[in-house]
Amino acid sequence: MSKILSKVPLGTTIAYGLPGVGAGYMYLLMTLYVMKFSTDVLLIAPAVMGAIFSVSRIWDAVSDPIAGYLSDRTTFKFGRRRSWMLLSFIPICFGFLAVFSPPESLQGQSLDLWMMVAIISFYSAITLFNVPHMALGAEISDDYHERTRLFGVRHIGFTLGSILSLVSMSLLISEETSPDGNVRELARNLALIAITAMSLMIFLAVSRLKENPDFQNRVNKNPFKAFRDIWINPHAKILIVVLFIENLGGAVIGVLTLYVTQYIVEAPAWAPLIILAYMLPSALSVPMWIPLSRRFGKVNLWVFSLAFTGISFGGIFVIPFLDSVNDRLLVMFIGAALGGTAAGCGGAIGPSVKGDVIDYDEYLTGERKEGSYFAALNFVFKSATGIMLLVTGFVLQFSGFIPNQPQTMEVKIALISLYGLVPLIFYSLGAFLLFKKFTFGEAEHALIKEQIKKRN
Fold first, then answer.
1. Are 111 and 117 in contact (CB under 8 A)?
2. pTM of this prediction?
3. Is 1 contained in some domain?
């Protein structure tokens, strides 16, 4: 019988976090640059791109639960998580490459259709990797604080990948402004490098990580019951709502950063460094948040970080009213650095708390359905991004936005309201709900784990 690790070896922790580098690179490039690449390079209407991302989120409502349930039900000897992680690299490669290398012969509706299929294909493929990978993290250790360390390393890897994508975005933006630039060719070459690296990371992870075979075949055959259990789990219900609200606030930051730096700050070349000012503290702060979570409690610390992130970005609302580019840049850098430091807490603690809630589900049902739970989490993450992409597309379309031209004050206020006030509202609301409604802490977790051990 295999046992869940309480203390996870460093090699296992690194192997688990490594594919997060590739996933972080791809996710950030898809979130930050695909909208701009489509509107400014491919010349697709913003509203069309917003609709495409909306359709992809509707599809996620179907594909994410399927991926989670199938992962829970898989009985291959290679493992119910590692099997799907290994299979995912092929569609990930094809989907990501298709997004950044549409045939130049395509125009109009044909190009719109290509991008819709490519975007939906990529997000479906990354789900095949991400859901089992997150689920495996909850299985590797059942220790209340060790999970935070494990998911913290994954968050560091994800953030490092995001930082690498900033280098790519810097190259792409420079190529856009170059008289002889070929953005399409550069985007295709960068995509080829990314899919090669991601494939190697997945291979290494699945070769080093181990699964607990005792967890196989411990889920109901009825998929509807599996997801009904999630919703009737009182702690899961609150957590999903909080994560959705949190991701709504975070998604708009990712979607609009390039637009804000170009059209409001009026310093587009600084965009990668501003995003770096957010990403770097997010990764570097994780080792600080982990011991603090032991002292003050995971949930209490998460509440603080949510509120602090909202305040950090709320202050950015003043930027259109500042006369100097240097002043606007200073406010952007301060807000990004403070918000990134706070976000490092949520990146490590959020999935860790999700793992604790899955243990509560085992206490209620006797089943282990990490895949279904993290499918719900993955859907929340992508739905929030899709909603904000849809909203952004329509705001750009109907506020009078004109690509590659100076914007009116009305357009600037519309953009900065999304970028500053929306995160302030949503992060604050998430902090309030988590503080008032979530009651499953370390003591409660220890109690149900003891009951599970006695029952088994």
1. no
2. 0.80
3. no
